[in-house]
Design a protein that fits this description.
Organism: Halomonas halmophila
Bound molecules: ligand C2E, magnesium ion
Structural class: alpha/beta
Distance between the termini: 58 Å
Keywords: ATP-binding, Kinase, Membrane, Nucleotide-binding, Phosphoprotein, Transferase, Transmembrane, Transmembrane helix, Two-component regulatory system
GO molecular function: ATP binding; kinase activity
Shape: globular
Main location: membrane
Subcellular location: Membrane
């Protein structure tokens, strides 16, 4: 233990390590305490039918409000957690929160499926399948109301290990989505052998459409191929009505993005569902953009 501590001290105060590494270590130490200190919580971003008139799902997105560092974005702390075993505990926490939240929505008469991001390390842990099973049982969530989001690289890197696991998860009735699609190097034809329901097209393909002919062509190719393989196609990061309308003409099924909804506390989702259903989406969108 003394040796361990000694080593740690050398790492932490070594003047030769640069500021970024130091920051990373500080975050990592903070993250080790974050769960115990209740600094982690989950936000839910609605996913809409492409018309924008109906909420058809919600993605659970973890947040870290650190006493010491303030609100740290997941793009910063998730990779750090992934470098340690912390991601497994954080991932389990998010899954638990999300399943219980989705049950509360259903109890209020608005059953909305919830999507949860998985990291590669969780897939490699033995306990994942039994965690999912246990959490579904304890929360009482219907398995088909849960979707797990995985990235392409997770699927391609260890297909021999991942395929049987995904099949077992899917046998429970849980849905599987590919997240950030298009940023990896996999082809849809290759992914076809995996039990996948949904393809979420990465925001980078949406950013510059309509307007950039190259990106329009790429996006059209991705959407039409995904559709022809019978995936549900979801566009990520839709910020404008022009983007939404363009995606609709391409035949995209669903969208997620700041145009229609930001990540919010779970208890806000029901009112968003009702607003989408009863509101006049065009009017709401217009008003939102102006003010
Ligand atoms: P992701 O899974 O692709 O999640 C979508 C991200 O895009 C979210 O960022 C969301 O807030 C953001 N987003 C949604 N609509 C828009 C838009 O219209 N414009 C822009 N600019 N951004 C939009 P967030 O919450 O910061 O999460 C970033 C990433 O962190 C996630 O990307 C995911 O990879 C990871 N992450 C978040 N929560 C978890 C988690 O519980 N577990 C794991 N393993 N990763 C997570
Ligand atoms: Mg995601
Ligand atoms: Mg994504
Ligand atoms: Mg992403």
């Amino acid at each position: 233990v003394a040796k361990e501590r000694g080593r740690q001290r050398i790492v932490l105060f070594d003047p030769s390590i640069d500021a970024r590494q130091q920051q990373r270590l500080n975050y990592e130490m903070g993250l080790r305490e974050a769960l115990n200190k209740d600094e982690l919580f989950v936000r839910y971003q609605p996913r809409f039918e492409i018309s924008g008139r109906r909420i058809v799902g919600a993605e659970a997105l973890v947040r870290w409000e650190s006493q010491e560092h303030g609100l740290v974005p997941p793009d910063i702390f998730i990779p750090i957690a992934e470098g340690t075993r912390l991601i497994v505990d954080i991932g389990r926490f998010v899954l638990e929160q999300a399943c219980h939240e989705a049950v509360r929505w259903a109890e209020q008469g608005e059953a909305v499926p919830v999507s949860v991001n998985l990291s590669p390390k969780q897939l490699r842990e033995d306990g994942l399948w039994s965690d999912i099973q246990r959490i579904l049982r304890e929360s009482g969530l219907a398995p088909n109301m849960l979707e797990l989001e995985l990235t392409e690289s997770m699927l391609v890197d260890n297909i021999d290990l991942v395929l049987p696991l995904l099949q077992r998860i899917r046998a429970l009735g849980v849905n599987i989505a590919i997240d950030d699609f298009g940023t990896g190097y996999s082809s849809l034809a290759y992914l076809k052998q995996l039990p996948i329901d949904t393809v979420k097209v990465d925001r980078s393909f949406i950013n510059d459409v309509p307007g950039s002919p190259e990106d329009e062509t790429l996006l059209q190719a991705i959407v039409s191929m995904a559709r022809s393989l019978n995936y549900r196609v979801v566009a990520e990061g839709v910020e404008s009505e022009q983007q939404r309308a363009f995606l609709e003409t391409l035949g995209c099924d669903e969208l997620q993005g700041f145009l229609l909804g930001r990540p919010e506390p779970g208890n806000m989702l029901i009112s968003q569902v009702i607003r989408a259903r009863e509101g006049t989406p065009e009017g709401d969108r217009g008003a939102g953009r102006l003010g």
